[in-house]
């Protein structure tokens, strides 16, 4: 499912226009992104939670040449699925 298909599904399920569903989805995504950027955590009980973790700098290897390269430290987004979501796919 891509973004436009999700918007169509939200509009159909909620009985709202596609424009309203798009606005709601974009608001949700924007707020999740803003919270994570501040270092916060977003948790939806039963669905899952998003958090930010710091990945330390490390040495890597170029697979073509075999040379050692430096990989910079960076923040990464992590998602942990909730019990209901895990149960629905098994």
UniProtKB/TrEMBL annotation:
Keywords associated with the record: DNA condensation, DNA-binding
Protein name, entry field: HU family DNA-binding protein
Gene Ontology molecular functions: DNA binding
Similarity annotation: Belongs to the bacterial histone-like protein family.
Pfam family, one: Bac_DNA_binding
Species this protein is from: Flavobacterium myungsuense
Phylogenetic placement of the source organism: Bacteria, Pseudomonadati, Bacteroidota, Flavobacteriia, Flavobacteriales
DNA-binding as UniProt keyword: yes
InterPro entries in the cross-refs: Hist_DNA-bd (IPR000119), IHF-like_DNA-bd_dom_sf (IPR010992)
């Amino acid at each position: 499912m891509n973004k436009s298909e999700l918007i169509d599904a939200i509009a159909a399920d909620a009985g709202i226009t596609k424009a309203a569903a798009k606005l709601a989805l974009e608001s949700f995504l924007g707020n999740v992104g803003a919270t994570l950027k501040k270092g916060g955590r977003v948790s939806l009980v039963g669905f899952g939670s998003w958090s930010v973790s710091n990945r330390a700098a490390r040495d890597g290897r170029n697979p073509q040449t075999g040379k050692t390269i430096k990989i910079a430290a960076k923040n990464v987004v992590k998602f942990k699925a909730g019990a209901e979501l895990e149960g629905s796919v098994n």
